[in-house]
C-alpha cells in the first residue's frame, strides 16, 4: 500500500496541520501540496532518513568513549 498525496488550501492546512504532520510522520501520507488561490505554494514531505553510524570499521566507536584527566 502506497501513501497518499493530498492537496489543500492554506486555510485548511492551517486548521488540520498537526494531524496532517502526524500522518506524514507515520507514513500515511507521502506529501501534502499547499495551495493559495489555486496555485501551489509549498510541498510538505517526510524528511530523509537519518544516516546511521557505521557498525564496524573506521569510525564505529566515534563518540562512544570518554577520557578523564589523569589523576596525580
Report on the structure:
This protein is 22% helix and 28% strand. The chain is of the alpha+beta class. It has a domain at 4-44: 3-Layer(aba) Sandwich (YefM-like fold). A 3-stranded mixed sheet has the order 1-2-3, covered by helices on one side. It is elongated. The N and C termini lie far apart (64 Å). The mean pLDDT is 84. It comes from Enterovirga aerilata. Belongs to the phD/YefM antitoxin family.
Summarize the structure.
The protein has 72 residues and is an alpha+beta fold. 22% of the residues lie in helices and 28% in strands.
**What is the CATH C-level name of one domain?**
Alpha Beta
Please write the string of helix (H) and strand (E) elements: EHEE
Q: Strand pairing plus helix content: what structural class?
A: alpha+beta
Fraction of residues in H or I helices: 10-25%
How is the main sheet built? 3 strands, mixed
- Helices, by number, come to 1
Our measurement of the CA-to-CA distance between the termini, rounded to an integer number of angstroms, reads 64 Å
How confident is the prediction overall: mean pLDDT? 84
InterPro entries: YefM-like_sf
Organism: Enterovirga aerilata
Protein name: Type II toxin-antitoxin system Phd/YefM family antitoxin
Family: Belongs to the phD/YefM antitoxin family.
Give a topology summary.
Elements: E1 4-9, H1 10-25, E2 29-36, E3 39-44
Parallel strand pairs: 1-2
Antiparallel strand pairs: 2-3
Amino acid at each position: 500500500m502506497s501513501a497518499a498525496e493530498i492537496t489543500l488550501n492554506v486555510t485548511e492546512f492551517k486548521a488540520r496541520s498537526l494531524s496532517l504532520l502526524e500522518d506524514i510522520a507515520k507514513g500515511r501520507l507521502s506529501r501534502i501540496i499547499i495551495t493559495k488561490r489555486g496555485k501551489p505554494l509549498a510541498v510538505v514531505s517526510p524528511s530523509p532518513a537519518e544516516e546511521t553510524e557505521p557498525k564496524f570499521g573506521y569510525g564505529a566507536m566515534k563518540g562512544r568513549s570518554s577520557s578523564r584527566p589523569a589523576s596525580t
